[in-house]
Design brief:
4-stranded parallel beta sheet, 9 helices, alpha/beta, 12% strand
């Protein structure tokens, strides 16, 4: 049976969530019609009211996946209140783990290879230096930190991007509640064996020496 899934995200995390859900559906031969919508933030949910209702009328699944930011409980309450006001239906997940404050970048920082963690220390010193220049310079945000980390690695660009944005992303989802949240909706009463994770890891890496 075809499952209509609409995912409402803030923006930057759209690709990662799409890749994971599509992989899960293919692995378990679940037929889905997937549409991911960048909203620009939870305060814009009202602009997508019709899209929520349209999918609900088709017995589809609506997912809202945003950042918790500085206060998980506050953001959760705000979004659920907006849900009630708009009269729409959806399942909610807040990065990084549907429990703690943080955002999508919080996850990405956690998955950096340990031997390269010193690159973040260098970047933070750079941010501190700019901050002390009496406001004359714009201090790069945390997204810039992630991209600086990527571009500082010596490995071939396409491979390292796949590793950071593919393998590491999936690894993190298996270490927190995102995997539980998504799988419960797509494949209830089933679990994702470690062999499947290994398979996906190698597919993301682009290497052909996989053993699984």
């Amino acid at each position: 049976m075809l499952k209509n899934i609409r995912i409402f995200v803030e923006g930057d995390d759209k690709l990662f969530i799409e890749q994971y859900i599509l992989w899960i559906s293919e692995r378990f031969q679940e037929k889905i019609a997937l549409k991911t919508i960048s909203t620009g933030g939870w305060t814009n949910l009202h602009k997508h009211k019709n899209e929520f209702k349209e999918n609900a009328d088709m017995n589809g699944i609506n997912l809202v996946i945003f950042d918790a930011d500085d206060n998980f409980r506050k953001r959760e309450t705000e979004i659920l209140q907006r849900k009630k006001e708009l009269g729409i239906d959806f399942k909610l997940f807040l990065f990084p783990d549907n429990n703690a404050p943080g955002d999508f970048e919080t996850l990405l920082e956690k998955i950096a290879i340990e031997k390269h963690q010193q690159l973040f220390d260098c970047f933070e010193k750079y941010q501190e230096c700019l901050t002390n220049k009496n406001g004359n310079y714009k201090v790069p945000n945390r997204k810039a930190k992630i991209f600086a980390y990527l571009e500082s690695l010596n490995e071939e660009t396409n491979f390292k991007k796949r590793v950071l944005l593919g393998i590491s992303w999936i690894t993190i989802m298996f270490e927190n509640n995102m995997q539980i949240f998504i799988n419960k909706l797509l494949i209830p009463n089933r679990f994702l064996p470690s062999q499947s994770l290994n398979h996906f890891v190698w597919l993301c890496s682009g290497r052909n020496d996989a053993v699984y």
